[in-house]
Amino acid sequence: MAVKADQATAPRSHTMHAIEFDADLIARMSQNGPRYTSYPTADRFTDAFRAPDYASAATRLKPGGRALSLYVHIPFCQSLCYYCACNKIITTNREKAVIYLGYLKREIDMQAALFAGKGRVEQLHFGGGTPTYLSDEQMGDLLDYMRARFDFAPDTTGEYSIEIDPRTVDPERIRSLRRQGFNRLSLGVQDFDDDVQRAVNRIQPEAMTVDAITAAREAGFRSISIDLIYGLPLQNTRTMTSTLDKVVAAAPDRISVYNYAHMPQMFKSQKLIRDEDLPDAPTKLAMLGLCIERLTAAGYVYIGMDHFARPDDELARAQRDGTLHRNFQGYSTHADTDMVSCGVSAISAVDGTYAQNEKSLEAYYARIDKGELPVARGLAMNEDDFLRRDVIQQLMCDFALDTRALGERRGIDFGEYFAPELPKLETMAQDGLLDLDAQGIRVTPKGRLLIRNICMVFDKYFGKPRAIPLTRMQYSRTI
């Protein structure tokens, strides 16, 4: 292993959040690759893994052991956003939600029986679709149902979040969500420009978003997050500058800035976006640079990937403390948990296994009608998977890897085990993405935006035939 013996891995500090935007390097190195919300990635799941395998993993958990993280997927939306790549169902027929909730409760019963006495719920996330598609009464009833079957940590220590569409709520609904137990809120914004909003069929006036944020603060939500997307039709640096000014003025605790991946061959709704309206690659790159410059100047810390947070936010503190984690919802402060996910297409991560539910309502309902957990596919990790997941997690969260400590913990010689990977790392070091030294790997400020590229070096599956055909699953660009 090539090292620089006079150089040591930098301690965690505010300087670890520095980021350097090198447009030429990014343009040269950007490629399609995983986001590493899991390792192995979801396209490696197989239908050989079924509900009994998942149940076996749950039974291996010790009573009172690791905490639990619950995820609930609500797939319904009232209207179609053309850019969306989520698993969603567009409908104004509210009866569909009534039927879905009945089946969802039946799955919750089965999951709760599996995990009875295993651990306390310290994290809950409602995603979709649009979770606030559910009425206030339906949401309250569902939460009461879950609390009767799982042991939830108190509000002061638990992290209970929900994604909302500001177009579907008013201030009273937001106050009700807080009373129902949610203490974190994520708002989809994407862009404030009127023309961009019309081009993606999501008309959401600035005042509507600001009113939702104000109501959330008044209701006592501990954290408010905004999602933005760059690369949408009719976007340019002028429109992005205006949007960023408005976002900074709204002062959310966290901001996510996602790269729009235009894949109409996979997502039919994206065919409604005109190719000629999409910004070209240099414009997209300029918008990314603008986002980084504007948000860091406003005092936000670059957490990693697409995420920014205020320095006093729990995500930023967790990164400084070395306790940051990454899961299917992105970056998280709760590292040592098993994730139990309910609803159509939801993915659980329990005791070294991944299990994904059926993706269609029909298949999801049919499995539950048989009295079965609706697991369609998954994967049981082996020792090599655990090791590589450890490496990727640390790089994604800490931008550093102590290879000596990892070797001692895993009983390996890092240089020998990862000998095939070292030449690629050395090339990246020459490009200025990382430093290799006697203690390990440190990602440079220039390399942090390309962290997915660095992690791909350790992905033994990348580039090999997939369990899920390319036509059904495709990676986005790393930048």
From TrEMBL:
A Gene Ontology molecular function term of the record: 4 iron, 4 sulfur cluster binding
Pfam families: HemN_C, Radical_SAM
Positions with a binding annotation for S-adenosyl-L-methionine 2: 83-85, 129-130, 190, 202, 227, 261
Co-factor note (free text): Binds 1 [4Fe-4S] cluster. The cluster is coordinated with 3 cysteines and an exchangeable S-adenosyl-L-methionine.
Annotated CDD domains: Radical_SAM
Catalytic activity line of the entry: coproporphyrinogen III + 2 S-adenosyl-L-methionine = protoporphyrinogen IX + 2 5'-deoxyadenosine + 2 L-methionine + 2 CO2
Pathway membership, UniProt: Porphyrin-containing compound metabolism; protoporphyrin-IX biosynthesis; protoporphyrinogen-IX from coproporphyrinogen-III (AdoMet route): step 1/1
Superkingdom: Bacteria
Cofactor(s) in the UniProt record: [4Fe-4S] cluster
EC number(s) per entry: 1.3.98.3
Subunit composition and interactions: Monomer.
Protein name, entry field: Coproporphyrinogen-III oxidase
